[in-house]
Write a structure and sequence with these properties.
This protein has a single domain, classed as tt1808, chain A. 21% of the residues lie in helices and 29% in strands.
């Protein structure tokens, strides 16, 4: 019986399949043309569409309370934006629960805010806590967002992150006195957040 001999087969060089990151421009075009359901809760993070969980009552309540407090504290000095996109480079358009933006008379009618427009971002975290800490925190630091808060609903505390440098926040602290919470961009503004917990 003859012995089988393996004969090498040369295959043409074929590129390996790779992911195609979605750009911010493509993302918004997908929304305009109906590719994305208008009711879908998605964010564009680093070129990928991320499904966000539905907003529960505690999350909505705390977001609304923070909105009320921030708006009263900075009226005429800054704009408080709720669950609207901010543009971070070509591949990310997160929708933080709250964004404190530099005041502009046109309220950003021509384009969504970019890093230089942002004074503070806030994520109210219940089911999204791991995503907010592991994905959004380093993203916001990398784009030099000056201040980022995570309101941790299950943990019943507020974590503040300030002074971004080299892709991380150099000041990170848990707020122990919720009766006197300051905002880095407004040294004279003090918020009483005790009603959040």
């Amino acid at each position: 019986m003859p012995t089988a001999v393996a004969i090498p087969i040369e295959l043409p060089a074929v590129p390996v399949p790779r992911r195609h990151p979605i750009t911010v421009t493509e993302y918004f075009r997908m929304g305009e043309t109906g590719v994305l359901d208008p009711q879908a809760r998605v964010e564009l993070i680093e070129g990928e569409l991320i499904d966000m969980p539905p907003i529960g009552a505690p999350h909505a309540s705390k977001t609304n309370r923070l909105l009320d407090l921030l708006t009263a504290a900075v009226r005429g000095q800054a704009i408080v934006s709720v669950r609207n996109p901010v543009i971070l480079g070509d591949l990310s358009a997160p929708e933080p629960d709250l964004a404190l933006l530099r005041y502009r008379d046109d309220y950003y009618v021509q384009a969504h805010p970019r890093p230089d427009d942002i004074l503070l971002l806030i994520e109210v975290a219940d089911t999204s806590l791991v995503h907010d800490r592991n994905t959004k925190l380093p993203l916001y630091a990398r784009f030099q967002i000056p201040e980022f808060w995570i309101l941790d609903i299950p943990g019943r505390h507020l974590d503040c992150h300030r002074e971004p440098d080299s892709g991380r926040y150099t000041q990170q602290f848990r707020v122990h006195d919720l009766s006197r919470v300051g905002i880095g961009a407004f040294p004279g503004v003090v918020l009483d957040l005790r009603a959040l917990f």
